[in-house]
Each structure stands twice: as C-alpha cells, then as structure tokens.
Design brief:
Blueprint (H helix, E strand, L loop, with lengths): L5 E5 L6 E5 L6 E3 L6 E3 L11 H43 L15 E3 L3 E4 L6 E9 L5 E11 L5 E12 L4 E8 L6 E9 L2
Antiparallel strand pairs: 1-2, 3-4, 5-7, 6-7, 7-10, 8-9, 8-11
Amino acid sequence: MPTTKDVRGECQQCGGQFDFAAEAAGLLADCPHCGQQTELLLATPPEEKSPAQTKAIIYTVVAVVILVGGLIGAIIALKRAQRIVGPAQTKATTPSSPKPADPFAAQNFRTGAVTLEKTPGSKLVYAQGSIVNTAKQQRFGVKVELDLFDDAGKWIANASDYTGVLEPGGEWKFHAPVVESKSASAKIAAIKETK
C-alpha cells in the first residue's frame, strides 16, 4: 500500500489550517473548523527574510550613519574655520591707529622735552623736564628713568628721579641729577610706578 503524504492547507472561508492528503489537492471538502465547503489548497508558506535582505538593511543603516556623521563633521569644521577667519578679516579691514607721538601716552602720561641745566655757581648738572598725569586717578611712586648721551649721540649713563604722588591732570617737573660730566643730552627711557 502506497503511503500518502499529508500537507497543510487553509480554509478559504475561515482561514483555519488543517492537514489533508496530497492527492486530494484541488478537491472540495468540509472544513474541520467551520464545517463549510472549501477547496483543498496548500497554505502559503510564511515569508522569511532572506540573509541578503537583512544584510542590505544593515549596510543601508551603516551608510546613513556614516553620511550623517560626515555631514556633522563638515558643519563643525566650517563653523570653526569661520571663527578663526572672522577675527582675522576684521583685523585686516580695521585701519590701525597711528602711533602716538608721545611713547608714554599709552601709560596715560604726557612728557615734555628734557634739557640739561647746570646749577649756577656749582658743577652740578640736572636733567629737567615735565611729566603730566593724563589719567583720572592718582599715580603713586612714579619714577622716571633717563638715558644720557655724549656729544656724538652715544649712550653713556643713566639718571633717574622719583615722586611719591602725581595727581590726576597734575604736572611733575622732574629734576634728575646727572653724574656723568660728558653728558650732552638726555631722553626719557621709561616711566614706572608702584602699584
């Protein structure tokens, strides 16, 4: 006796699944679930995702992540470049302010010419000049340092003078002793103050 193979079928009325002999495919029979007549047809196999579809989805997700990461990196690099170039462009377009004629104006001091004066009746020589405090506050411990030059314009010595307080808008007429007898001229080298 030949053995028949059973196959799984599906009722066209209620959708219930049942087994029947393979030779009976295409015939009409009663459904064991709903009792109505149904044609014996093979049930459609469940859809399985193929490994190729799964890999395609994974590769697509990876590609999208890489593209988004690259886009974010490009935006960050662009903004950083704009921050670096931005200040450089504003510096290039802003005209530089001319240097003040008085090198001590940046320190809020205005200086006058320095002359060498000999004291009548003695051999003492003093470097004399004036310094004005252009700041709006008192200056304390102000010291002027002078460079002394000979007739050829060569530096030969230093001289200095000190005042304890210089009022806002006040003028200090300094009187620095010159100990080098060959001194022919003097120039202010520095103005310092204690803070």
